[in-house]
Design brief:
It is a single chain. By secondary structure, this protein is α+β, with helices and mostly antiparallel strands. The protein has a domain of about 90 residues. Strands 6-5-4-3-2-1-7 form a seven-stranded antiparallel beta sheet, covered by helices on one side. The C terminus is likely disordered.
Length: about 160
């Protein structure tokens, strides 16, 4: 990074015909390890299970989502996210922490197998014999947002 900055400065000051009144430099650098924010999913997508994958892949949507071992995963611009529900909350996940089914295949191969299965699903329509799954729509706004209790003050014994 230092070499890049030095090269940039050298190029800017090496010009032979720069007049002080005409010169201007604007440099803005943002460094972050967060990656892009995950997609907001308002409706539960349809998931199919390509036989060569063995896990569920979302189809008919403009994003890549996978459902494995009760968790949902998204990959966006090289960053992985996981969530307990199709609509989040999403948290970053390192590639080393992906489930084996998702980690053992190349991403491009997963997408290719998903697309092949989706074409099959569209052709067979009502006669599709593959596995499919659509999660129930999550109901937000129920309760006060402080857990899954019934309001009588008892602690959740499972925690």
């Amino acid at each position: 990074m230092k070499k890049l900055l030095l090269l940039l400065v050298a190029v800017l000051f090496s010009s032979s015909t720069v007049f002080a009144g005409d010169a201007g430099v604007d440099f803005d650098l943002h460094v972050s390890n967060r990656g892009p924010a995950p997609i907001i999913v308002p409706e539960p997508p349809l998931f199919l299970v390509p036989p060569d994958l063995g896990f569920e892949v979302a189809v008919g949507v403009n994003f890549d989502m996978f459902h494995i071992d009760g968790r949902f995963f998204q990959c966006r611009e090289g960053y992985w996210y996981a969530a307990p529900r199709y609509d989040g909350p999403w948290e970053g996940v390192g590639p080393k922490h992906l489930p084996p089914g998702l980690a053992k295949k190349r991403y491009t191969e997963i997408i290719r197998l998903r697309d092949v299965e989706y074409v099959r699903y569209q052709k067979e329509k009502d006669h599709y014999h593959g596995k499919s799954y659509r999660p129930a729509k999550n109901k937000h706004g129920k309760g006060n947002g402080h857990g899954n209790g019934n309001g009588n003050g008892k602690k959740n014994k499972n925690k």
